[in-house]
Design brief:
The protein is mainly α and 105 residues long. It has helices at 11-28, 36-41, 43-54, 60-69, 74-87, 90-101. α5 (74-87) runs antiparallel to α6 (90-101). The chain is flat and about 45 Å long. It starts with 10 loop residues before the first helix and ends with a helix.
């Protein structure tokens, strides 16, 4: 029996059960498949596909913010900025959070 992340039962069985449930759900629900490799190859196209699927109309600033967040290494950079901000003044943390979500306030 393989155990991981604090789960005390059969991890392989749990994973199979969850994947089976996911397959059953996806078979009956409209959904959009977004592949990591495609997102990394052409983030702009994939973000547009997501926008079209969700039938939303974000402004260009929000789209640009989304694109910045999926650039290779962007997550690590954002996480490091947040860690650094937590070590400094509260205003620095707020500034880093605003930068992360694209707020201009």
């Amino acid at each position: 029996m393989e155990k991981g992340l604090g789960y005390r039962g059969d991890a392989a069985l749990l994973q199979r059960t969850l994947l089976t449930a996911l397959d059953a759900f996806c078979a009956t629900q409209e959904h959009l498949v977004v592949k990591f490799s495609e997102m990394m190859n052409d983030a702009k196209r994939e973000i547009r596909r997501i926008i079209d699927f969700l039938q939303i109309s974000p402004n260009e600033e929000k789209i640009a913010s989304a694109l910045r967040s999926v650039q290779p290494g962007a997550r690590a950079k954002v996480e490091e900025e947040l860690r650094e901000a937590k070590r400094s003044k509260p205003s620095k943390l707020l500034e880093a959070l605003r930068k992360t979500i694209g707020s201009k306030e």
